[in-house]
Amino acid sequence: MLLCYNSYIWVIDMYKILIIEDDLEIRNELKILLDNNGYSGVILDNFDKVKENIISKKADLILLDINIPNINGQHLLKELREEIDTPIIMVTSKNTEIDEVISMSYGADDYITKPYNPNILLLHIEAILKRTNKTNNVLNYKNITLDTSKSMIYHENGEITLSRNEMMIFYYLIKNEGKIVSREDIMNYLWDTEDFIDDNTLTVNIARLRNKLEDAGLTNVIETRRGQGYILI
Amino acid sequence: MKFSDYLKNRFVNIIIYLFLIIITFLLLAAFKVNQSLIFVLISLLIVFIIINFLYDYFRKKNFYDTLTYNIKNLNKKYLISEMIKKPNFIEGQILYDVLYDTTKSMNEHINEYKFSLENFKEYIELWIHEVKTPLAGGLLMLHNNSKSDKKMMEILNKINGYVEQVLYYARSENPEKDFIIKKVNLNSIVKKVVSNNKENFINKKISVKLEDLDVSIYSDPKWLEFIINQIIQNSLKYSKNNDESYVKIYSETKDDIISLIIEDNGIGIDNSDLPRIFDKSFTGKNGHNIDHSTGMGLYICKKLCDKLGTKIEAMSTLNEFTKLIITFKVNNFYDVI
Predict the structure, then answer these.
(1) pTM (2 decimals)?
(2) Least buried of A23, A56, B21, B99, by fewest C-beta within 10 Å?
(3) Which of B122, B117, B114, B127 has its CA nearest to residue B177?
(4) Would the ipTM clear 0.90, i.e. be above it?
């Protein structure tokens, strides 16, 4: 898929994520969640010849529920692993160590239990895609480039080094470009990435991030909307 | 069975034998039998009576002593009929048969309950897995809804918490199922739990301090996660909700013992309540003051810890702090594997 921002042209792969889940509500909501977050969610709705069906979809990642009617998820996983090496996340309501160990030994890349925190599910998907697909860790916003692997911003006049917190905040703002992001949203995101900052630290980090951007001549990148939050415009 | 007790029990028999001896003596004397013959006859009579008593005493003593010895030392006293041999005297045989029948009928009775309990547990596990699917659906739906309802989310999370409690209660009752001991890094597990409780931490503005957690212990990660989660949720529930409120989680290593300590500066626990916080359905003063205490959380934690072979204890000063300490033994045995 080709996107165009200001004269910068690059190719973004829309990752195709196959949802294998028998519960109608969950699979529809999962699709919405994935579509809203820059992936392309595909639902498998035909459970006959399930293995062939899955392989033919050529997904980049598979979310596989263990309890699909008439199919043993772990058995299916084992069979799939003999033919394809697409990353597979097992999704299940069975919260036991034994199930997890079995799934991992059959070649699952990750194991998530229901009910999952949507943000954490997205983080797991992102981490696995990064690990398996050698994706670039680079995000672009206007003429600013953020490299998350190096925690650096590159722009016309040079580069800026960011702390982990500053980087995560900026990353989240770019991901939600054009939307107002509340302080609470940012806090929630940081906590999901297991960075347990408090309100004061957030204030300090945003101020520092702004200063760094302004020092580099990038003024008014992050705008404050009083009583609502921040926005990148 | 003491001989004196036996004799007391045979009091009537002894009296009858005494009469027999006296009557025999009087009769023999009345017929003017030779005195030495009387003496010999009476002596013989006495000797045979004693032999009779001794024989009876020893064969009963043998049976009843085994019986009482076994009942004293048996862990499962209802297995007593398996532990004794059928005796060769009539009262013992009757007792043996009665015991045998009682035990058999009781075992059948117990099996009935065992079976129905087993069925119930299986159903509960199944039901929990079933109910988690709509819960997951609801949470996803709320998340996708741009104007997502925080209160609703909180309620769904609460329901999920209670569901988990039931699941682990059922598991703590028959732990032979699903529990695996493996190497667990405390850091990753604690972070996961804190992250799962983020809404509460953020809303109540309670800060988190994690220190010295990069150590590994051997336990079941899922069970441990549940235990830590219960403790942290208690810390959040009984916090003073002011600017200084914190939950501090750290570990201490002493020789071959690693302790995980979860400390908060909340309202604390009254000294008189402290020894009973792990009791079933105990809510104490705090539970009465703050609603929604079932008194099950820590009880289940304690049960799980017992099964895992870890120790859990609490220390607290009212209005100052509460410390929950989980102690793991670093067993060299595991290093060999």
Answers:
(1) 0.78
(2) A56
(3) B122
(4) no
